[in-house]
User: Fold this.
Amino acid sequence: MSSKKPLPLINSQDSEQISPEKGDVNFLDQTLRPTSWNDYIGQKNIKDNLHILLTAAAERKHPPEHLLFYGPPGLGKTTLAHLIAHETRAQLKATSGPAIEKVGDLASILTNLSPGDILFIDEIHRLNKAIEEVLYPAMESGSLDIIIGKGPSARTIQLDLPQFTLIAATTRIALLSAPLRSRFSGGVFKLEFYTNEEIEKIIERSAKILGVKIDDSAKAEIAKRSRFTPRTANYLLKRSRDLAQVRKSALTKETVMEALNMLGIDEVGLNATDRALLTVIEEKFNGGPVGLNTLAAALSEEQATIEDVYEPYLLQLGFIERTSRGRVITDRAKMHLGLKSKNKLI
Ligand code: ADE
Assistant:
């Protein structure tokens, strides 16, 4: 008796899981995720390129070529995949690198696609090598080559797949092999951190959707602490709204400051782990350089979490530097943490 295993696909409505650093993402996905290009603020260069690519593909009556989006978490990679599916009226099937455990998992996903479908693979850097190799011919020539059996009697069978578009996302472009990267013939796009003005627009739009009134100074305060990241901005907006609701007060700058201070988020958006990371470099390792593995052990964090979640923003702020010998804290960070006086000349 064999019960058929479901495909490792994620319902496209909740293709991201709740985790502390991502915040209450499910709710965000369904309610705050932009559903039109007009609502998708920022990333102008990517939007312009996608517009040309999608228009040209539509004129040729051909599915768009495979696309790869990379950049820190929360910048809208998944949202882009949903918008592309919406614009091309394609069905989006979402999965992730870690969900595809075996070659057979990928084979069943690919053979269950319909012509014109978009297959979205999040965290593609976590796909294992053997599975990656099955993906190459599927992406290049729409064929699935699988080996049946072992040893001298092993043989390869080749199946034709329906035409599909692979959209992949990763926070770690450096972990992708060159052969995989080169197969994204539609393009490889880097999502940038948002500007303060863009984050303010996102907060304004989200507040409208959530039905909360927010004044300009409250909006500016949330934006300042949002790590230039829409997901964080929406998370902080919701937590501030909670406090305003419980206090039966308006969503003012004071409410925002109180809500975010309670969450341990400081005036430039650093949380307790960011501060611990900086303090450990300064106090335990004399300001650095300190290797990533040593730093991760000292903080009891995964190296990947440090690289994916904490470092991009600290680098963006100029609070740490990456050198060949490890991570170094900057004077700017020391000043922010009060580890160095503004007038001290050293
Ligand atoms: N949520 C995630 N990314 C967004 C964007 N670029 N604009 C508006 N809301 C977003």
Notes: The radius of gyration is 23 Å. The chain has three domains: 12-190, 196-262, 272-337. The beta strands are 67-70, 92-96, 118-122, 143-148, 155-160, 165-170, 187-190, 320-323, 326-329.
